[in-house]
């Protein structure tokens, strides 16, 4: 796989299509590879520029897809041929990817969310995708490297030998965990996915899908969870705008 890569706002993203996304576990397994797949939105962009561990995660990532229309729009302003088809959020691409895994006999592991939420998310997918080989572990454990709880989780993952590992423990904790453990994990592909299990378990309402296509999913989430998300949209979004204006000002011919 060689999707186009573009640099903008100090980060690098790949113009992955949905078809390419859902083939990643299968191709990685065929090649006996170990791929790290990241994603970028305004939240990750802010943390990337303020957290060294986050930067190490993206340096290790083999592919980074776009999760947020604002980055598509900013990329286009900077001259990159990005379209709505290059924006993917796990709510949309995860179900077809899991269907593909079930059809090909590929194993999947979910790591993250509160105890019980991980199991409810797994039950949702098992109900809708017959034959899916899926195991889970919640994200409420002591992730200290070398600590007994972390070692138990790593052993549990490796015993299952998943082709695809989805880590949803929030940024930047999930990226830190991947960076600290990737070399010991017996997997083929790993994603940083945030609160994806909360949605499929029914713990958090899934935003109407049209909101994501027109760039309003963040607004919907802010209205639903203002106390948890206000900082993300009040502080982090203006930071992205500042990065954009700075980059535009540095372009040849700007005044």
Order of helices and strands: EEHEHHEHHEHEHEHEHHHH
Instruction: Please count the helical segments.
Output: 12
| Form type | globular
When the domains are counted, the total is 1
Q: Into which percentage range does the β-strand content fall?
A: 5-15%
**Oligomer class:** single chain
Number of strands: 8
Largest sheet: 6 strands, parallel
Query: Low-confidence segments, ≥5 residues, pLDDT <50?
Result: none
Cα distance, first to last residue?
39 Å
CA radius of gyration: 18 Å
Question: For the largest beta sheet, what order do the strands appear in spatially?
Answer: 4-3-8-7-5-6
Which percent bin holds the helix content?
40-55%
Q: Which structural class should the secondary elements be placed in?
A: alpha/beta
Give an account of the 3D structure.
With 255 residues, the protein is α/β, with parallel strands linked by helices. It has one domain. Helix content is 51%, strand content 15%. The protein has 12 helices and 8 strands. The chain has helices at residues 18-30, 42-48, 52-60, 69-77, 90-104, 117-128, 148-160, 173-181, 196-200, 209-213, 217-224, 226-250; strands at residues 5-8, 11-14, 35-40, 63-66, 107-112, 133-137, 164-168, 189-192. Strands 4-3-8-7-5-6 form a 6-stranded parallel β-sheet, with helices on both faces. α2 (42-48) packs across α12 (226-250) and α11 (217-224) runs antiparallel to α12. It is globular, with a radius of gyration of 18 Å. The termini are far apart. 37% of the residues are buried. InterPro entries: WecG_TagA_CpsF (IPR004629). One of its GO terms (molecular function) is hexosyltransferase activity. Keywords: Glycosyltransferase, Transferase. It comes from Rubrobacter taiwanensis. This is Glycosyltransferase.
């Amino acid at each position: 796989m060689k999707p186009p890569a573009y640099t903008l706002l100090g980060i690098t993203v790949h113009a992955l299509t949905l078809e390419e996304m859902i083939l990643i576990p299968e191709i990685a397994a065929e090649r006996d590879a170990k791929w790290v797949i990241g994603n970028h939105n305004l939240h990750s962009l802010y943390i990337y520029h303020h957290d060294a561990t986050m930067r190490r995660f993206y340096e290790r990532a083999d592919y980074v897809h776009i999760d947020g229309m604002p980055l598509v729009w900013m990329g286009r302003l900077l001259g990159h041929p990005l379209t709505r088809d290059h924006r993917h959020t796990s709510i949309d691409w995860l179900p077809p990817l899991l269907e593909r895994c079930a059809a090909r006999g590929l194993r999947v592991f979910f790591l993250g969310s509160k105890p019980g939420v991980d199991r409810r998310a797994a039950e949702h997918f098992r109900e809708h995708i017959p034959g899916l080989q899926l195991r889970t572990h919640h994200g409420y454990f002591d992730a200290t490297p070398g600590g007994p709880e972390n070692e138990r989780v790593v052993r549990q993952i490796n015993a299952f030998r998943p082709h695809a590992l989805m880590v949803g423990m929030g940024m930047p904790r999930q990226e830190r965990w991947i960076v600290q453990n990737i070399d010991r994990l017996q997997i083929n592909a790993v994603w940083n996915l945030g609160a994806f299990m909360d949605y499929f378990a029914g713990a958090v309402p899934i935003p109407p899908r049209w909101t994501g296509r027109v760039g309003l999913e963040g607004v919907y989430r802010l209205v639903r969870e203002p106390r948890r998300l206000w900082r993300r949209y009040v502080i982090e979004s203006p930071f992205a705008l500042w990065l954009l204006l700075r980059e535009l000002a540095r372009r040849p011919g700007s005044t």
